[in-house]
């Protein structure tokens, strides 16, 4: 059976939205931290809702997660995600936390999967995309944008925590034109025209 290709947010639209978003309330700062973190690291929904203070080191720019199959991976964080996390953590106490999970709901308890989905859906409605955005959309966008900028599939596999590169290969279908461009730029015989030979073979 053919795999359904995942939807991806256009890079330019996502960048513009995040750059223009200046959160003011603690909940808005939480929401931006979630979205920046999902896009920066490609985390699964269960991985981001399960984060505790010991799992994240903003000074080192790293986040540690236990993924599928109980496998640990340490992921780098981009500067925008670090800034958003610092802004959220500075006001997290205002939400009166009753748990040590990093991301909490308005009642101060652990943010659940459904709550995460609603945050993502609500925040992306303003982009007026032709599809609904959910946490996994940001994971797909993370991988596809890396691939489009020249990252190799093996590195993306490691970042996503896939046990098989076959699972990661679904992202290549989303970037056919970009892969052609990389191929034309890098393969020695992709663009050179053959020498014209006089006469017939």
Describe this structure in words.
Strands 1-2-3 form a three-stranded antiparallel β-sheet, with no helix packed on it. The longest helix is centred in the first third of the chain and has 16 residues, at 26-41. It has helices spanning 11-20, 26-41, 45-49, 79-89, 113-124, 135-148, 153-160, 165-168, 176-186, and strands at 56-57, 62-66, 72-76. Helices cover 45% and strands 6% of the residues. It has one domain (11-184): hpI Integrase, Chain A (Orthogonal Bundle). It is globular. The model has no long low-confidence stretch (mean pLDDT 87). By secondary structure, the protein is mainly alpha-helical. The N and C termini lie far apart (46 Å). The protein has nine helices and three strands, in the order αααβββαααααα. Helix 2 (26-41) packs antiparallel against helix 4 (79-89) and helix 2 (26-41) crosses helix 6 (135-148).
Average of per-residue pLDDT values = 87
| Percentage of residues in helical conformation | 40-55%
What is the number of strand segments? 3
Beta content: 5-15%
C-alpha geometry:
globular
Report the top-level CATH class: Mainly Alpha
Low-pLDDT segments, ≥5 res: none
């Amino acid at each position: 059976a053919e795999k359904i290709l995942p939807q991806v947010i256009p890079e330019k639209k996502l960048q513009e939205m995040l750059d223009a978003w200046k959160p003011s309330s603690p909940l808005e700062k939480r929401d931006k931290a979630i979205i920046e973190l999902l896009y920066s690291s490609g985390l699964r929904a269960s991985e981001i809702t399960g984060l505790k203070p010991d799992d994240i080191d903003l000074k080192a720019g790293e986040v540690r997660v236990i993924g599928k199959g109980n496998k640990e991976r340490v992921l780098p964080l981009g500067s925008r995600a670090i800034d958003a996390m610092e802004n959220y953590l500075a006001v997290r106490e205002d939400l009166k936390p009753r748990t040590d999970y990093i991301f909490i709901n308005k009642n101060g308890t652990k943010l659940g999967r459904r709550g995460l989905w609603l945050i993502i859906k609500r925040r992306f409605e303003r982009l007026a995309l032709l599809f609904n955005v959910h946490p996994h959309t940001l994971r797909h966008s993370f991988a596809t944008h890396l691939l489009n900028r020249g990252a190799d599939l093996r590195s993306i596999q490691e970042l996503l925590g896939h046990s098989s590169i076959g699972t990661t290969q679904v992202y290549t279908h989303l970037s056919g034109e970009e892969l052609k461009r990389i191929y034309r730029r890098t393969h020695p015989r992709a663009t050179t025209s053959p020498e014209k030979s006089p006469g017939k073979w």
